[in-house]
Amino acid sequence: MLVGFACNSETNSNSSIVTETNIKPMTYLDSISDVIVKEPNNSNNYYRRALFLYNEREYDQALADIERAINIDDSKAEYFYLEGNIYYNDNAYENAFKSYQTAVELDNEHIEAILRLSTLELALENYQLALDMVNKALKVDPNYAEGYYLKGFIYLDGGDTVKSISSFRTAVEVDPDHYNSYIMLGKLYASEKHEYAGDYYDNALRIRPNSIEALYNKGIYLQSIEEYDEAYLLYDQIIELDSASYFAYYNRGYMMLISDSSYSGAIKEFEKSLKFYPYYTQAFYNIGLCYENQGNYEKAEEYYRKALEIDPQFDLAAHGISRLLE
């Protein structure tokens, strides 16, 4: 590191002093750009910069660079795959589809591009085409967990829960650390209040111990089977991870409300929720319901009306006011 030294009166006054503030480190982007200036016809340099910009979510600049790379060399599937991803993340799905198609034409074993095509077909509810694409990817690699994961969604959206569960299970068989599949299995079993739901959420938490998503979903499941104390502990854990998690406060209040354990405590929890999400109509309504159950009809009406101010079509609040006026 270069460090500046003080100059005495005999030193040449025109000499340059190099200090730490003069030094600006070259960024990764600067280094790639410098190489591009020196090698303007090297497509890979434009690809590298496009990939960096894409990861930085600078989609317009990334697209300009990947198009330069393709203009120099249009034979590389990876270039078109990146172009597709840029379009996809910029919500230009028709262009993304074309780019992914070209990537697959150049490399018919490009699994990621094939699965992206499947995802787009799924969004259009073309279930058979989406399934065909997934099966094509799984022929290339039968142990590709993401393929089975996507297959699970195709079956789920198509209404076949049994095959959906089977696909998600296969995903965790080939990859025991496939977090997203455990989450989906947990949700599917939780919808039936099946004990397996807890096991699948526990596996998700094994992989990501501080996952608010997994903690929240397990909490909802425990609520559904009336294991309120355990659910409460999970919501405490969520709040420790993120004190602004309004839904955790809300659910703590909701459990107090439905179990008649403490209307005053429930009100406090709902108020905490509103601190972080002031437009939560259900929280306003539930505060009103707590007051109504306490016999404080004036406060109940106040909160029902607050809910209706946010959402005039919120029927529960309107019905609450009607009850009070009977």
Architecture per CATH nomenclature, i.e. the level-2 architecture of one domain: Alpha Horseshoe
Shape: elongated
CATH class of one domain: Mainly Alpha
Poorly predicted regions: 1-21
CATH superfamily annotation of one domain: Tetratricopeptide repeat domain
Radius of gyration: 28 Å
H/E element sequence: HHHHHHHHHHHHHHHHHH
- Could you describe the largest sheet, including whether it forms a barrel? none
pLDDT averaged over residues: 92
Cα distance, first to last residue?
Answer: 81 Å
Strand content: under 5%
* Class per helix and strand makeup: mainly alpha
Number of helices in the DSSP assignment: 18
Q: What is CATH's topology name of one domain? A: Serine Threonine Protein Phosphatase 5, Tetratricopeptide repeat
Please count the beta strands (DSSP E, at least 2 residues each). Answer: 0
Percent helix range = over 70%
What would your notes on this structure say?
Among the domains are: 22-107, Tetratricopeptide repeat domain (Serine Threonine Protein Phosphatase 5, Tetratricopeptide repeat), CATH 1.25.40; 245-326, Serine Threonine Protein Phosphatase 5, Tetratricopeptide repeat, CATH 1.25.40.10. With 326 residues, the chain is mainly α. Helices cover 72% and strands 0% of the residues.
